Amino acid sequence: MDVRRSLPQRELPTVGAWCFLDRFGPQETVMRVDPHPHIGLQTVTWPLVGEIRHRDSLGNDVVVRRGSLNIMTAGVGISHSEYSLGDDAIALDALQLWVALPEERRHGAPDFERHDDLPRLSLPTLEGDRAVATVVVGEFGSVTSPATMHTPIVGAEIALPAGSRVRVPLRSDWEHAIVRVQGDLRVVADENDDIAVQGQDLLYLGVQRDEIEVASDQGALVFLLGGEPFPDDIVMWWNFVARSHEEIAEAREAWERGDRRYGAVTGHSPNQRVPSPPLPSVRLTTRRRRL
Question: pLDDT tens across 38-60, in order?
Answer without folding.
Answer: 999 999 999 999 999 999 999 99
